[in-house]
Amino acid sequence: MSIWTELTGIDHRHAYVDAGGIRTRALQAGPEGGEHVVFLHGTTGHLEAFVKNVPVHAERYRCHAIDMLGHGYTGKPDRPGEIPAYVEHLMAYLDAVGAERAHLVGESLGGWVSSWAASEYPDRVASLQLLCMGGTKVNPAVMERLKTSTRAAALEDDISLTRDRLRLLWAEWDEDLGDELTQVRYEIYHQPDFQRNLHNLLALQEVETRERNLLRPDRMARIKAPTLVVWANKNPFGDVPEAEAIATAIPGARLEIFNECGHWPQHEKADLYNPLSLSFLAGVS
């Protein structure tokens, strides 16, 4: 099995889109006239995080999995990666593809960005799915682990460090795609422009920067979009009470917890996540 064999059953396009002057890498699939669903990855991640999800969603929806600002093969302006900048880039992408409104699916950092976008641009966000979302707490130990593991994976030549960084995300190693995803991430992490930009991508792991970007309850209370919170009982970056607090803070939010699962529920438990997501989308479309 390969990342790209996951996609062989659908008509899809690997594209570069000018999003407000930022060359933005995207995987696009699904009917041109379908409602837009945008998938957003986590810190130092990339669109391949959603290869198990795009095909089934693209049967009905116009899907976009993108490399966010400064990530993957998307452009890397030399400025700290703070949440308003990610939201600005997301809105520019929606404008570029003609999406007046979109359903947002955000994992980790992607959920943080999606929630902020929904609080600032309620007319443009049709629904939210927040998968092991970050951004509601300052936990120096977790932040330091993320910084240390990412820097080692990006700045050392040993590919096992990249594998170790990916293994943080899963309760169990993915025997089918793990090695290929490791190779994809290794190639991204070892681009010279990625390494030069790494301090910007890790800016939110600094206490002062994170504090001014936090998703506080008053901001989450402003979210009007229907919201599904998906969490995992073995998420290494946040325990279940964090998810419960998020679901309480967002009006009407629904919480689903996956057992024996880590930080990538959409990947590790795709057989549970995909039907759950499609049912949720059908209910709000």
Can you walk me through this structure?
With 285 residues, the protein is α/β, with parallel strands linked by helices. The protein has a single domain, classed as Alpha/Beta hydrolase fold, catalytic domain (Rossmann fold), CATH 3.40.50.1820. The chain has twelve helices and eight strands. The protein has helices at 54-57, 83-96, 109-120, 140-155, 159-167, 178-189, 192-201, 207-213, 217-220, 240-249, 265-268, 270-284; strands at 12-19, 22-29, 36-40, 62-66, 102-107, 125-131, 227-232, 254-258. Strands 1-2-4-3-5-6-7-8 form an eight-stranded mixed sheet, with helices on both faces. Helix 4 (140-155) packs antiparallel against helix 5 (159-167). The longest helix has 16 residues, at 140-155. The model has no long low-confidence stretch (mean pLDDT 96).
Topology:
Elements (H helix, E strand, L loop, with lengths): L11 E8 L2 E8 L6 E5 L13 H4 L4 E5 L16 H14 L5 E6 L1 H12 L4 E7 L8 H16 L3 H9 L10 H12 L2 H10 L5 H7 L3 H4 L6 E6 L7 H10 L4 E5 L6 H4 L1 H15 L1
Parallel strand pairs: 3-4, 3-5, 5-6, 6-7, 7-8
Antiparallel strand pairs: 1-2, 2-4
Helix pairs in contact: 2-3, 4-5, 5-6
Question: How would you characterize the largest beta sheet?
Answer: 8 strands, mixed
The order of strands across the largest sheet is 1-2-4-3-5-6-7-8
Would you identify the regions where 5 or more consecutive residues have pLDDT less than 50? none
Query: What's the CATH H-level superfamily name?
Result: Alpha/Beta hydrolase fold, catalytic domain
Helices and strands, in order, run as EEEHEHEHEHHHHHHEHEHH
Integer-rounded radius of gyration: 17 Å
Form type: globular
CATH architecture: 3-Layer(aba) Sandwich
CATH topology: Rossmann fold
Intertermini distance? 33 Å
Rounded average pLDDT: 96
- Number-wise, the strands total 8
| H/I helix tally | 12
Strand content: 15-25%
**Which structural class matches the secondary elements?**
alpha/beta
Kindly state the percentage of residues in helix: 40-55%
Pfam families: Abhydrolase_1
Keywords: Hydrolase
InterPro entries: AB_hydrolase_1 (IPR000073), AB_hydrolase_fold (IPR029058), AB_hydrolase_sf (IPR050266)
GO molecular function, one term: hydrolase activity
